[in-house]
Amino acid sequence: MPDVDVAIIGAGAAGLSVAAISAGLGLKVALFERGEMGGDCLNYGCVPSKALLAAGHAAAEARRAPRFGVHAGDPRIDWAGVRAHVHGAISAIAPNDSAERFRGMGIDVVRATARFVARDAIEAGGRRYAFRRAVVAAGSAAVVPPIPGLAEVPFLTNETLFGLPEKPGHLVIIGGGPIGLEMAQAHARLGCRVSVIEAVSIAAREEPECVGPLRAALVADGVALHEGARVARVEGDQAGVAVVLADGGRIAGTHLLLAVGRAPRLDALGLEAGGVAFGPRGISTDLALRSTTNRRVWAAGDIADPVGLGPRAFTHVCSQHAGIIARGMIFRLPAKLSYDALPRVTYTDPEVAQIGPTEAELRAAGRDDLTILRWPLAENDRLIAEGRTEGLVKLVADRKGRLLGASLVGAGVGNMAGMYALMIGRKLSTLAGAVLPYPTAQEAGKRAAGDFYTPKLLSAPVKRAVGLLKYLP
């Protein structure tokens, strides 16, 4: 007989969610974690990065205060205090992800490296665990690219950045994606020199119309952007480290941060022994997140590579995966993953939010029946009152008015992403007719949606009908 009903490798967002659901439904669960409980999100990702961004935002607001007639002077940055805030946020949330909490649910939490030793067995801590079902949720790690000279110089990733005891004098960041840009702005606002080196263009996955305001804001914060710059090598420098570009340029700084992407943590899992197929992007699964080669095994979170969709390294996707797995693995019901309404946010200031596909992605997929609607935030009363009018809401719908995707850039637009995620596939009349509180930034989306119907409402036939209706008693 199996030792456990469900064996879960990885106590990050995905693994913890599956463990809680399984144990709550009365299944015997073993949860294996070789590192920190809570995974990257709690310890090295979402939580510390947003805490650091909050500190940077506070400094920026202090500098902006004179425009409102409030004069507080230039803020003094206490780096020890900033670090205390960041690690305090981690400590406040950690009990929710702790081994003690999950043991209290009846889960056997094993703090050891786990690896498959058979199609139905895992070994960890010197013990063999036979299982009925297994979920691999080992997550991902920062990519360390094969740059000449990198092995000879100190560098940072998201796993080491938040442990710095001193404020970087000049932080050089390779990579202009979400992590690189968020950390660039946070450090710049906290008084560091920052340079970002990006081989193509910053925020390359995002809607180009949304990148312009973000680029302007980063430059205004003092971030030096080097776009279209390819790294030839890195080397030691009197300042600390230098990045030599392919065109001969040289950027020297005190610290080097690598932010060029994520790769699944596949090493040491023994996937071959478990008969679990995998590739460079992760474990191969169907749309129910079940292994394509071992029907006892599922994958969740960053390490899952669903056929036709590919991996998505977002904490909220981990929660989505947990629900899909619960439906298929536990209840044996049909389950199918879809990213049609998936939101993502880059938490810079202004924030950039994308819900569903961009216009370019839809056109690349062969959609030529698109209607594009825009509303500038410069015409939003709340943001005018707050002096934050940069940005826009862009909606992409089909000709029948069903929302296919939404792109937003502006102050706090990530807080609106959930509304658009619920709207994907629905008619814009739902949003146009919604009663929203005034004044809020959400009205921009309502106004954009209303523009879909304005030409029909003001058409000649409607005007003629109104002309006749006015004679009715």
Automatic annotation (TrEMBL):
Keywords: Disulfide bond, FAD, Flavoprotein, Membrane, NADP, Oxidoreductase, Redox-active center, Transmembrane, Transmembrane helix
Database matches in PANTHER family: MERCURIC REDUCTASE
Transmembrane segments: 6-27, 403-423
Superkingdom of source: Bacteria
Protein's UniProt name: Dihydrolipoamide dehydrogenase
Region forming the signal peptide: none
Every FAD/NAD(P)-binding domain range: 5-308
Cofactor(s) it depends on: FAD
InterPro entries from the UniProt entry: FAD/NAD-bd_sf, FAD/NAD-binding_dom, FAD/NAD-linked_Rdtase_dimer_sf, Pyr_nuc-diS_OxRdtase, Pyr_nucl-diS_OxRdtase_dimer, Pyr_OxRdtase_I_AS
Entry keyword Transport: no
Domain Pyridine nucleotide-disulphide oxidoreductase dimerisation: 343-448
Organism for this UniProt entry: Roseomonas fluvialis
Assigned protein family: Belongs to the class-I pyridine nucleotide-disulfide oxidoreductase family.
